[in-house]
């Protein structure tokens, strides 16, 4: 329902974006039909498998949103996953301080094990959620300073902060995983409304919010101006630095929300969670969605993510029992991206020759 | 001449390296020893060659992230192919076959980029994912430790050897010859050949370069073939050092290599970058990584300090460039005012 409002609006935008959306939708439908056919007896579209996808898709999707907003202003944010982990690690640190484990005299309490009572005070639960959000905001400020004000190339600045934030989490936890979070937090990832997992609803809501930000606010317009031509936007009176700063702050907060969902799903916080896969995956999604400096459609992000998930689950079922079957998805993702790039090239060329 | 040198980026990095080494040496005198130096050189050799692979691409104005996947795929495929045929010889045949595979993989990148006029980053993102997936699914998913006889002792093939009572034998590994030869060739190519000058020209201003008659596509393809060959070379070398062939070799290290190249003075937007700077950039990042072990900083805090140091070393050139841009702008307005 909410997605349709986004698409109808996207029709007002340039044809280019509409074309990418259509292409991605066609690929998604073809992929779903193909895998439903070949995996027919294995129940490819069963409710259970779709619902379990929903929770994990939500974290990746929110991280992809965090990546997308920075790519829109011509940057990139490699530190999103580090931000997500740092937020919940610090929340865990706080909860550990107020609920330290009971220790026999003479021994020091092991950090990393929170001893939360069955009914912790509401205030502490709220603070436990506010900490990650403010960490997200603060990491955004740091990235914004380095990228917007000092003008370090974004890919290097956020590579450095990725190491910085990961290192801070690792140092605080001494490389261990924090466990024993209050069970009340399970609600975030565990609750379903009308059969839809809460994280997925959260992700959809955030997608709509970002879409509104980009389409209907001056800040969104300025973001796209900077992404298209930084010099031109500076000379047309836009405060590039401030817009870039706010964009990275938004990116940080989105990342920290993803962190909260991860914490709620795993009931733990680790400095290295998803470190090797999530950042690359979110870049894959944004590039597949055709998002680049100044141009991007949030709805494309949604479909691109679904396509990657369908390919991953589909091939996994198809190749069940084959050695190394989990790795075929990477191969298929790479090939698919190349195919989409090449199709885009031909549609671009046809369009430009039509105009002449 | 000397004044010109002191204003270069290379000079700045050299100073930083000297200061950093002095500080680490004061904290832990063990840092100033021949064995530390030889260890540093051996660890740096592979990454210097990887950085050489990336350097022409960066000068051309592109960010490639697939070179590590090409390195892993070429080295692993070569190894599995030779092992299956019962090969027992030395490293030379490894280099030859891997470089051919790597060159072809680089050619694929170059062809897709030029034929369909696509951004380097996007294409390399796709080919990186593709090659790692290809290697893991079609060739093999586990590290292979059965090394042919001719390769077993290669990791300890030293030009000069020192015996340290604590850390054991180390030495100056023969691979330094490769680094020097490749470095000199790369320097000559970039500086004195038509190809090299064209790479800088395209990186400086692509449209102008094309209008002056430079064959942009040809140059781009050659650069990516070079990238593939050198990556594969580094892949074989690293595998020979660690005495196992790993399908996910170098995974996640592409941006660290890129950072070293950029710290070495190459511009992300293209048109700038030198061989000497790249070598110094890699040495600096390697010293940062290794010297923290020698200081008293606990292991779990090292990543934090690496991040901190990286911020400082990327902020310095950025600030300098900003200042230069401001001065340049001031000069311009003065001219237009008069």
| Arithmetic mean pLDDT of chain A | 85
From the 3D structure, determine the CATH topology of chain A. Answer: ABC transporter involved in vitamin B12 uptake, BtuC
Shape of chain A: globular
Query: Rounded to an integer, what's the Rg of chain B over CA atoms?
Result: 21 Å
Global outline of chain B: globular
Write the layout of secondary structure elements.
The complex is a heterodimer of chains A (356) and B (338).
Chain A: H1 2-10, H2 15-38, H3 47-72, H4 80-98, H5 122-149, H6 154-173, E1 178-179, H7 186-190, E2 192-193, E3 196-197, H8 198-216, H9 218-228, H10 230-235, H11 240-266, E4 268-269, H12 278-288, H13 298-318, H14 328-355
Antiparallel strand pairs in A: 1-4, 2-3
Helix pairs in contact in A: 2-13, 2-14, 3-8, 3-11, 3-12, 3-13, 4-5, 4-6, 4-11, 5-6, 5-11, 8-9, 9-11, 13-14
Chain B: H1 2-6, H2 9-27, H3 34-59, H4 67-84, H5 91-115, H6 120-139, H7 149-152, E1 158-164, E2 168-173, H8 175-192, H9 194-204, H10 206-211, H11 216-242, H12 254-263, H13 275-294, H14 302-337
Antiparallel strand pairs in B: 1-2
Concise summary:
The complex is a heterodimer of chains A (356) and B (338). With 356 residues, chain A is mainly α.
């Amino acid at each position: 329902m909410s997605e349709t409002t986004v698409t109808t609006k996207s029709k007002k935008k340039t044809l280019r974006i509409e074309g990418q959306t259509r292409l991605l939708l066609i690929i998604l439908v073809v992929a779903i039909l193909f895998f439903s056919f070949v995996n027919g007896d294995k129940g490819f579209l069963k409710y259970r498998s779709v619902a379990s996808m929903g929770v994990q898709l939500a974290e990746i999707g929110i991280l992809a949103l965090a990546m997308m907003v920075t790519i829109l202003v011509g940057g990139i944010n490699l530190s999103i996953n580090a931000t997500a982990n740092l937020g919940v690690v610090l929340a865990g640190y706080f909860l550990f301080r107020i609920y330290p484990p009971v220790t026999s005299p003479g021994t020091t309490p092991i950090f990393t094990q929170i001893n939360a009572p069955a009914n912790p005070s509401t205030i502490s639960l709220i603070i436990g959620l506010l900490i990650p959000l403010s960490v997200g905001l603060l990491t955004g400020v740091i990235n914004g300073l380095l990228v917007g004000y000092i003008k370090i190339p974004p890919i290097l600045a956020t590579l450095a902060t990725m190491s910085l934030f990961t290192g801070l989490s690792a140092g605080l936890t001494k490389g261990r995983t924090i466990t024993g979070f209050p069970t009340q937090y399970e609600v975030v990832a565990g609750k379903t409304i009308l059969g839809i997992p809460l994280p997925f609803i959260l992700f959809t809501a955030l997608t709509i919010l970002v879409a509104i930000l980009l389409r209907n606010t001056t800040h969104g317009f300025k973001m796209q101006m900077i992404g298209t031509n930084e010099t031109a936007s500076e000379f047309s009176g836009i405060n590039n630095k401030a817009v870039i700063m706010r964009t990275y702050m938004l990116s940080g907060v989105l990342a920290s929300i993803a962190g909260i969902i991860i914490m709620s799903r795993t009931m733990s916080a680790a400095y290295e969670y998803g470190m090797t896969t999530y950042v690359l995956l979110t870049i894959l999604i944004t590039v597949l969605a055709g998002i680049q400096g100044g141009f991007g459609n949030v709805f494309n992000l949604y479909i691109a993510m679904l396509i990657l998930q369908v390919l991953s689950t589909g091939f996994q079922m198809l190749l069940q029992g084959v050695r190394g079957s989990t790795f075929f998805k990477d191969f298929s993702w790479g090939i698919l991206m190349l195919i989409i790039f090449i199709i885009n090239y031909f549609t671009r060329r046809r369009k430009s020759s039509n105009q002449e | 001449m000397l004044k010109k040198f002191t204003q270069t980026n290379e000079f700045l990095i050299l100073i930083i390296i000297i200061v950093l080494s002095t500080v680490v040496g004061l904290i832990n005198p063990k840092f100033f020893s021949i064995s530390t130096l030889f260890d540093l050189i051996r660890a740096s050799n592979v990454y210097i060659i990887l950085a050489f692979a990336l350097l022409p691409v960066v000068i051309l104005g592109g960010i490639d992230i697939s070179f590590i996947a090409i390195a892993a795929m070429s080295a692993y495929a070569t190894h599995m192919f030779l092992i299956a045929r019962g090969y027992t010889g030395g490293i030379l045949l490894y280099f030859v076959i891997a470089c051919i595979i790597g060159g072809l993989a680089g050619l694929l990148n170059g062809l897709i980029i030029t034929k369909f006029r696509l951004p380097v980053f996007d294409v390399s993102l796709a080919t990186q994912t593709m090659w790692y997936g290809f290697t893991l699914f079609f060739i093999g998913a586990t590290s292979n430790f059965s090394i042919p006889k001719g390769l077993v002792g290669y990791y300890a093939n030293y030009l000069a050897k020192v015996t340290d009572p604590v850390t054991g034998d180390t030495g100056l590994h023969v691979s330094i010859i490769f680094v020097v030869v490749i470095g000199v060739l790369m320097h000559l190519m970039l500086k004195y050949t038509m190809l090299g000058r064209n790479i800088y020209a395209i990186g400086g201003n692509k449209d102008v370069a094309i209008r002056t008659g430079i064959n942009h596509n040809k140059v781009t393809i050659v650069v990516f073939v070079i990238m593939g060959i050198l990556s594969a070379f580094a892949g074989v070398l690293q595998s020979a050092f660690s005495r196992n062939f790993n399908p996910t070799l170098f995974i996640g290290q592409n941006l660290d290599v890129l950072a070293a190249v950029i710290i070495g003075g190459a511009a992300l937007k293209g048109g700038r970058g030198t061989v000497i700077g790249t070598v110094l950039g890699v040495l600096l990042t390697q010293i940062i990584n290794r010297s923290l072990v020698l200081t008293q900083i606990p292991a779990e805090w090292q990543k934090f300090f690496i991040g901190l140091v990286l911020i400082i070393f990327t902020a310095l050139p950025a600030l300098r460039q900003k200042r230069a841009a401001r001065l340049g702008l001031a000069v311009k307005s003065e001219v237009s005012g008069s």
